[in-house]
Design a protein that fits this description.
684 residues, mainly beta
Length: 684
């Protein structure tokens, strides 16, 4: 099953690290506080989690997507979007955020994405390194829409995406795959997961490359046009060791590199990172979840002029460092309550070094050196309580939480120098700080085994990233300037929903939401070719989200649909009443899968992304796109399987960028792409 709404506490008790969480239960059992231990998993989900309309993507779906990209699997979730409709083979890495509920196009993530409890957003840009997150390494993804709470809740204004690494129970002793695809594309991966004492290790690696497709429409190509070539690798090591009878230590290391070429020859980008974390989980009388992490990231990008086709900007070095940690405690307060409280902190620091060149001079000389830097710190305390009084003739769950955060932005400086290093201009910005309070409440009533009702309200906030504050960028012909005066975004929202299980194996969900993002950060047009990041008064988004799933024997159908009516509120400006950029009103996905025997799967996925605007003034319109994907895995015996994948079978034109003035400039997404290969799995 592709995406499942958790509908009551019996499901909420299961660990998100347990890949068996793939359906809704048919009884309403109040939470009894009994821990379900999965080695290498997480603490049990709180019973109030379903009140916020959570969706789970299971391991079977993660391992059976036509693209093999986690960001494409996430598109199965109603309302999920990135800044553009491109995946991690043909998008600029710095534009790949994670967003929900049509709150406006923004390359930074308005959704908190966690991997084993660690925030994954780049410390400087706020983008997500999707190419380094391999679906085969995961056991489940849990998506919660709406303002965040709990650990690292600051920043989760649109929701939280929690990814959980595969446990030893999910992994064979050894596995490998090799696929060959259109345009000389290659994808190789391998994992080794031996037991070590009472714990286990999991070492995995992935390499992929491709000559890429032409993102530029045929009518706009020139001699300097280049296909979107890509090459990247990632390696991950995870170790889990029990400590005593009820505790364990989890350590994780991730290293990756990602190189891409976009639109023109020489327009190369490079991203790399090294992440490490250590986590202690204790499931005793007092439950403990303690975590510390470090992230070292870097990014570089060369911008090529679309008129002279010479280098105009070399964003040569953007080192960033992220540090953070949390301590969460769950004391024994009785079977009716699950109380959680704790503290967390995140530090982000980074520096941008770039060089500007005279693209109109054949010698292409260096004209200017630029530097921008800054640091951020967010530290907070949180408390959440889930209460299961079991009244109203059914099972009732009440949940509520609150956070208080202290944030600082400091040591910010932007300077320009001439080619020999003399200072042309320099600005040191004053340190800023503030307090933010946020919270959420929810209720879930299981009226019967076939019907659950839920309601929730929440607030949240997000600091502008260092990139939004201090670094501008150019995607010809538009230059977008940074703005050091940006203030935090603040969300207020509410939703109501119901979940139906009218028959065994059938689940339906409906959610109506109303969100308002005050001081929303948007790219505001100042002229035909210049934009600036600015806070607008608000973005108001209302909508409906539908989910459905049905299983009949070996056949499963699942899908989601979202309708979002989203408008910018900016009285007295041309933006007022416009649709936010990059925000379609309609989006949907459906997958039909047949699993005739163990290890075999044949599936097709239909996706629709509605029409949307490229810009804040609703001028550059991009049409809707309807794509069809297919996946097949056919076991051959002895752990060997033949795999076929097909992306965008009917070669639909997917417009990812469109600028009409001063001249037409467009980009396209993934065309028809076919893959063939083998998978190998040995032992358990």
């Amino acid at each position: 099953m592709l995406a499942v709404l958790l509908t009551h506490p019996a499901i909420a008790r299961a660990s998100a690290g347990d890949a068996a969480v793939t359906g809704t239960a048919d009884t309403a059992t109040p939470y009894d506080g009994t821990p379900i231990i999965v080695l290498g998993g997480t603490l049990d989900l709180p019973p109030g989690a379903p009140a916020y309309g959570e969706t789970v993507i299971d391991a079977a779906r993660l391992r059976a997507d036509a693209s093999g990209r986690v960001e494409d699997v996430l598109r199965d979730v109603a309302g999920f979007s990135q800044f553009r409709r491109s995946d991690s083979r043909s998008a600029n890495p710095s534009a790949q955020g994670a967003n929900l509920r049509a709150l406006g196009g923004n390359a930074a993530s308005r959704t908190l994405l966690l991997l084993d409890g660690v925030p994954m957003a780049d410390p400087f840009f706020g983008y997500i390194p999707y190419s380094a997150i391999v679906p085969d390494r995961l056991s489940a993804i849990r998506v919660t829409r709406g303002g965040g709470g709990g650990a690292f809740g600051a920043g989760a204004v649109a929701g939280t995406i929690a990814m959980v690494s595969a446990t030893r129970a999910d992994l064979p002793l050894a596995s490998a795959s090799a696929l060959y695809g259109s345009r000389d594309a290659t994808e190789l991966s391998a994992t080794l997961s031996p037991d070590v004492g009472r714990g286990f290790l999991s070492l995995s690696g992935r390499y992929d490359r491709g000559d890429g497709f032409d993102t530029t429409p045929a009518s706009q190509r020139v001699a300097a046009t280049a296909p979107a070539r890509y090459e990247g690798w990632s390696t991950a090591l995870r170790a889990v060791a029990p400590v005593g009878e009820t505790a364990e230590v989890q350590a994780r290391f991730l290293a990756y590199r990602d190189d891409r070429t976009l639109r023109f020859q020489g327009a190369d980008s490079h991203a790399e990172g090294q992440d490490a974390s250590i986590r202690l989980i204790a499931r005793g009388n007092w439950q403990v979840d303690a975590l510390a992490y470090v992230q070292a990231r870097n990014f570089s990008n060369i911008v090529i002029s679309s008129t002279s086709f010479r280098k105009t900007l070399d964003q040569r070095d953007t080192p960033a460092l992220g540090l953070g940690g949390k301590v969460e405690l769950r004391p024994p307060v009785g079977t009716d309550h699950l109380l959680r409280f704790g503290v967390d902190a995140r530090h982000a620091g980074g520096m941008m070094r770039e060089e500007a060149y005279d693209a109109n001079n054949a010698a292409n000389p260096l004209t200017q050196r630029r530097l921008a830097r800054g640091r951020q710190l967010t530290a907070g305390a949180f408390v959440e309580d889930d209460w299961t009084p079991g009244t109203l003739g059914g099972a009732l769950v009440l949940t509520g939480g609150a956070r208080i955060d202290r944030w600082t932005i400091r040591d910010a400086r932007v300077e320009r120098r001439d080619p020999v290093g003399a200072v042309l201009a320099a600005t040191t910005y004053p340190n800023r700080s503030g307090w933010e309070a946020s919270g959420r409440v929810g209720a879930l009533w299981i009226a019967s085994p076939a019907l659950s009702l839920r309601a929730a309200a929440y607030t949240g906030f997000r600091l502008p990233t260092l990139n939004e504050l201090y670094r501008g960028f150019t995607v010809f012909p538009i230059t977008t300037n940074a703005n050091a005066a940006l203030v935090p975004e603040r969300l207020r929202g509410a939703e109501i929903g119901l979940d139906l299980t009218p028959a065994p194996g059938v689940a339906l969900g409906l959610t109506a939401f109303d969100n308002r993002l005050d001081d929303a950060i948007a790219n505001v047009s100042l002229s035909a070719t210049v934009r600036e990041r600015r806070n607008v008064r608000a973005i108001a988004a209302q909508g409906l989200e539908l989910t459905a799933s049905a299983t009949l024997g070996h056949i499963a159908l699942s899908g989601s649909y979202t309708y979002s009516y989203s408008k910018v509120r900016a009285p007295g400006t041309p933006l007022d009443g416009r649709d936010p950029a990059q925000s379609p009103r309609h989006a949907g996905s459906a997958t039909l899968a047949w699993t005739p025997r163990e290890g075999a799967r044949i599936a097709g996925t239909l996706r629709h992304s509605g029409a949307q605007y490229e810009d804040d003034l609703s001028v550059d319109h991009m049409p809707a796109a309807l794509t069809v994907d297919a996946f097949a895995r056919l076991p051959l015996g002895r752990g060997v399987a033949l795999v076929g994948r097909a992306e965008n079978i009917f070669d639909e034109a997917i417009y990812t960028r469109r600028v009409s003035s001063p001249s037409l400039s467009e980009d396209l997404g993934t065309p028809r792409t076919l893959w063939i290969g083998v998978e190998l799995a040995l032992g358990r």
